[in-house]
From TrEMBL:
E.C. numbers: 2.8.1.1
Record organism: Candidatus Nitrosocaldus cavascurensis
InterPro entries: Rhodanese-like_dom (IPR001763), Rhodanese-like_dom_sf (IPR036873), Thiosulfate_sulfurtransferase (IPR051126)
SUPFAM superfamilies named among the record's database cross-references: Rhodanese/Cell cycle control phosphatase (SSF52821)
Gene3D superfamilies, alphabetized: Rhodanese-like domain (3.40.250.10)
Protein name, as recorded: Rhodanese domain-containing protein (TST, MPST, sseA)
Range of residues in the leader sequence: none
Residue span(s) of domain Rhodanese: 21-129, 161-288
Pfam family membership, one: Rhodanese
């Protein structure tokens, strides 16, 4: 059984929140500084998430990632008492990356603006260009990390042949088959299923409804333990056993797949932070 988790907010709902002057609301514009200054939602702070790449998921690499992430979050004023809404141009990969990061720090009150800034402007809602100064968090403030939503290359290597694990490659078909090579090696992680993240989207830049997303991910949700099609699909009992690991080139499109799967109510979903940029450049790791 699928249970839709409320992780999307419409532009109309956000406008009502702003009109009500909600005190606990923090809107984060995840686009570049240039795009943000050209125009953004009133009161939004900028956090250019595309600049926060990470491709080292060794133990030492994750420690450094956590340290860098804490500095980034504190500078943006992110605390657990805030209701945080991420957006980019559409319901895109940057906003999804923001949501995944919040789940990684165990933040329970995070949403993505469905349709993003493009839908906001389409509605004719107000836009400002003056940057909003964030309220930095005290250096002693602590965050909790949830490793259950994170995958490292070692984690995948140990489980890639486990019949309860599904691996989703959110890149393009050309990247998946090694036609478009963006690392030392082309191809994909063995046993990975290719589901391009763009299949999650409607033409107007909003997320597809749950019923449509279920069809998009049917190739993994309707597969039995031997990898054959299972017409009955995932049942409530075995849903608890299935784990899905998403990856792409740098963990952004993978975060969008993570969002889609969480909207479908899947409980065990991880993002491979290093993604193909790490896997494709580590020659000791297997490639198909």
């Amino acid at each position: 059984m699928y249970v839709c988790m409320v992780m999307l907010v419409t532009v109309d709902e956000l406008k009502k929140m702003l009109d009500a002057k909600a005190q606990d609301l923090l809107i984060v514009d995840a686009r570049s500084w240039h795009e943000y200054c050209y125009g953004h939602i009133p009161g939004a702070v900028n956090m250019d998430l595309f600049a926060f790449h990470w491709a080292d998921t060794s133990d030492e690499g994750i420690e450094r990632f956590n340290s860098s992430l804490k500095m980034l979050l504190k500078s943006a004023g992110i605390t657990y008492d805030k209701h945080i809404i991420f957006y980019d141009d559409i319901t895109g990969t940057l906003a999804a990356r923001g949501l995944w990061l919040m789940h990684y720090i165990c933040h329970e009150h995070t949403m993505v603006l469905d349709g993003g800034f493009s839908m906001w402007r389409r509605r004719g809602y107000p836009v400002e260009k003056e940057p909003t100064r964030p309220s930095p968090v005290n250096e002693e403030y602590t965050y909790r990390f949830n490793n259950d939503v994170l995958a490292t290359y070692r984690y995948i290597l140990e489980r890639m042949n486990n019949h309860n694990v599904r691996i989703v490659d959110a890149r393009s078909r050309e990247e998946y088959y090694g036609i478009h090579v963006r690392a030392s090696r082309g191809g994909h992680i063995p046993n990975a299923v290719n589901i391009d993240w763009e299949a999650n989207m409607m033409h107007n830049g909003t997320m597809k409804p749950v019923e449509m997303l279920r069809s998009v991910y049917s190739s993994i949700l309707h597969r039995d333990d031997e990898g054959n099609d299972d017409k009955e699909g995932v049942k409530e009992d075995d849903d608890n056993d299935m784990e899905i690991i998403c990856y792409c080139q740098g963990g952004y499109r993978a975060a969008h797949a993570y969002l889609a799967l969480k909207l479908l109510g899947m409980k065990k979903v991880r993002v491979y932070l290093g993604s193909w940029y790490e896997w494709g450049n580590r020659y000791e790791l297997p490639v198909e």
